[in-house]
Design goal:
The protein is of the alpha+beta class and 156 residues long. It has four helices and six strands, in the order αααββαββββ.
């Protein structure tokens, strides 16, 4: 009798644990969707679109240093998007989530268009890694964003 009760308890615990385990495939898909929405919002609404996806304690890691917090990030991106020739587009290529299902990343390629110091149209490309954290409401917010620019084309 005790053995049967323990077996049932073990099965119940195992099933309960499985039911709570995050669906990694669904979470990876949700991250890809979030990153695509982030790209579209930024293309459409520039600084405001960018900020819609930045967590309160978010950081942007750049070659010039790390920018921390929504206010500092808004200020930096506001300066960037003040240049009306500047555009930023990206495409997520991969995503993954941790075992807990509340932290994950996307990575992909980006393209920046702008006018150079001589007023000529210019373009740069690069790779990025964005770390996302799932919020209490189920949405994903950016906690870290890192971009690495490709080497400029020969002659530039």
């Amino acid at each position: 009798m005790i053995g049967r009760s323990l077996s049932r308890a073990a099965i119940l615990v195992a099933l309960t644990g499985c039911a709570r385990a995050p669906d990694a495939a669904a979470a990876r898909g949700a991250l890809m969707d979030a990153d695509r929405r982030f790209n579209n919002a930024t293309a459409e609404r520039r600084t405001d679109g960018w900020m819609d996806f930045i967590a309160e304690d978010g950081q942007m890691i750049r070659s010039a240093g790390t920018i921390t917090g929504r206010a500092a990030i808004r200020d930096e991106m506001g300066k960037t998007f003040a240049d009306t020739s500047f555009s930023l587009r990206w495409e997520p290529l991969q995503s993954d989530v941790g075992a807990g299902g509340d932290l994950g990343y996307t990575n992909g390629r980006y393209e920046v268009r702008f006018r150079d110091a001589k007023g000529n149209a210019a373009m740069r490309t690069g790779r990025y890694l964005t770390v996302w954290k799932k919020q209490a409401d189920g949405s994903w917010m950016v906690v870290r964003d890192i971009g690495v620019q490709d080497a400029p084309p020969p002659g530039q």
